[in-house]
Amino acid sequence: MKALIAGGAGFIGSHLADYLLNEGNEVVCIDNFFIGTRQNILHLLTNPHYVFYQYDLNNMELLHQVFNKEKPDYVFHLAANSDIQASAQNPIIEYQNTYSTTFNLLEAMRLHNVKKMFFASTSAVYGNKDALLNEETALLAPISYYGGAKLGSEGLLSAYAYMNDMDVLIFRFPNVIGPRLTHGVIFDFIKRLKKDSSKLLILGDGTQTKPYLYVFDLIEAIMKFKNIGKGVTLYNVGVDTATSVTRIAEIVCQKIGASNVSFEYTGGKGGWKGDVPKFQYDLSKIHTAGWTAKYTSDEAVALTVENNLV
Amino acid sequence: MKALIAGGAGFIGSHLADYLLNEGNEVVCIDNFFIGTRQNILHLLTNPHYVFYQYDLNNMELLHQVFNKEKPDYVFHLAANSDIQASAQNPIIEYQNTYSTTFNLLEAMRLHNVKKMFFASTSAVYGNKDALLNEETALLAPISYYGGAKLGSEGLLSAYAYMNDMDVLIFRFPNVIGPRLTHGVIFDFIKRLKKDSSKLLILGDGTQTKPYLYVFDLIEAIMKFKNIGKGVTLYNVGVDTATSVTRIAEIVCQKIGASNVSFEYTGGKGGWKGDVPKFQYDLSKIHTAGWTAKYTSDEAVALTVENNLV
Asked: Using the beta-carbon criterion (under 8 Å), do B156 and A148 form an inter-chain contact?
């Protein structure tokens, strides 16, 4: 298989490239280095089965060039603005980098007759709900521009799949963490503690509790289901456990060896406007299909802190 | 109230302008005449409470000018490509005219501090389902680019409403018919029979069965609920009855006075790729809220044929 990874120099995309190459596939990567980094793919640049293009997916002409030249038969779409806080002040970031990138990739696939796509969606499409989130019956009411643009992308995928007989696999990611992570609460805590290990500023009241999925668990799920079936296949992907922000702070302090750290809370329910303070997936669909995460949410956090300290 | 109607020279938008003016509101209309027509608003152009701009919503600069000058306090967003068949060959029509128009209007509202929006969504967000479609529990799986772009617009509305404390009313329209209708099956049948009343070409097998809502029923629902509440309020709007394509053909023939018309079917389930051949709404939410359509689907069809023959 020749796989095109959009956002392939990012945190998750670069790990996916490793796995796809390891399985014997050809990999074509497109990334504009807005969030992805050359560092993440340095080890791949000399691999004869790997090609990298530093292109922006909003340049349709360059996209056509890549499809013409490389003739991929599977597109893994992981390109998006993944920093919800950044777009909260400037929604056009999501319009361009999250929604329009999906439209452009689907147009390229339609015009170049590419029939398979994996799409990285998100828990943010659900919005703020107390109920267990089921992928087929939960109301979709995003509260961030990021979640809104991802829901819009899912709408496009559904229409393109039907109109062009494409097979599409959609995973709604929870918080995903692990090596090469570029931002988020774990990252912030380590940075702050390295500056000053006597105190730690925590956004919100610390009770925000989310399931954290270790990135290698996620990639194994993508690899397992990537050729699953006809039309659109949609899964929540995650872990049944969850970790509070205060618990993350405790794990980071312990791993760093910082004791007597004074936690200072900004207060309030969410860390920032558009943040969903608590959610839990109904994972019965993906569990029944034969995949379960190896690591609990707390284990994923602990491993990620260790990775970042190496 | 000063209402801005986007797509205000269209079939539904122009009727809404009539009702809003009649209630004593100021009305600002934007339309690019892609689908809307000057004919639809000719009677309004001399009304001192009505202003018309022949602008394209994708021109953000002109949009800012209108918001700056007119300072609307309510946006009724009915601008979209409403012709699903047209965009089936060219999805960028939906990206530009259905999705991006929503993004631009919401951006203008955010930047000019406008807090109320009505949005014309569609049954097409559900896709092709046998079940009774409930607005809160049905899976959303559009099979047309139009439905995909409308679902994307709903995602944007949800996010903007939360992030900017906007109050948003979303109606998922079924097929809406009545005076000033510009396209669709009734329109096509009348045109064909006027050319040749001996035979009538019918797309599909004629069993496609949809609820048709009379436009004045719809406008009355918009007027009733337009100030309904905080955050996002979402309703299916429609009729409990439905009309098959063959039944529409019979009604048209009867009203036109054409007898012995030979019906010729192209065959297949749907009229065209992306068409949903059958659907039925769960209307309990809007009925409980106090609105029910006055006309049945068959009555709406009959009235619409009569309007078109005047």
From this structure: yes
